[in-house]
Amino acid sequence: MKARLDPATRRRALRALLALFLVLALGQLVLGDMGLLASFKQRHATSQLRREVAEMTAQIESLKSDITALNRDPFRIETLAREQLGLARPGEIIFQFQPDPAAAPSPAIATPHGD
């Protein structure tokens, strides 16, 4: 024996089913694997990676110019040898002074000038 629903109950049941379907579809649209939140996260990650690639590209270009300078400019090599390795030409005397920690400059204090 089949139970028959009156038309008003049937409409309410269909509306409830449709509302449930819409809520689930909306939830999938927003929270799903390919939803809006995932899309925003992917866009943020993409922009972050593009910034990192730009920084790395700039760093690579800087290193390339350093390599070119080291290959072509003997003064650059001499400067690095003097600064980083403490090397000197024959007959030169190098004086190295240690900084005095007590003589460290104090931060400037701003004073108002409007009296």
Provide tags for this entry.
115 residues, mainly alpha, 64% helix
Structural commentary:
The longest helix has 37 residues, at 36-72. The model has no long low-confidence stretch (mean pLDDT 84). This protein has helices spanning 7-31, 36-72, 74-85. The radius of gyration is 36 Å and the shape is rod-shaped. The protein is mainly alpha-helical. It contains 3 helices and no strands. It is 64% helix and 0% strand.
Sheet-strand content, in percent, reads: under 5%
Q: How many helices does DSSP assign?
A: 3
Shape: rod-shaped
Q: pLDDT below 50 for ≥5 consecutive residues: which ranges?
A: none
**Class derived from helix and strand content:** mainly alpha
- Helix and strand pattern: HHH
State the gist of this model:
With 115 residues, this protein is mainly α. It has helices spanning 7-31, 36-72, 74-85. The relative contact order is 0.03.
Task: Chart the SSEs and their pairings.
Blueprint lengths: L6 H25 L4 H37 L1 H12 L30
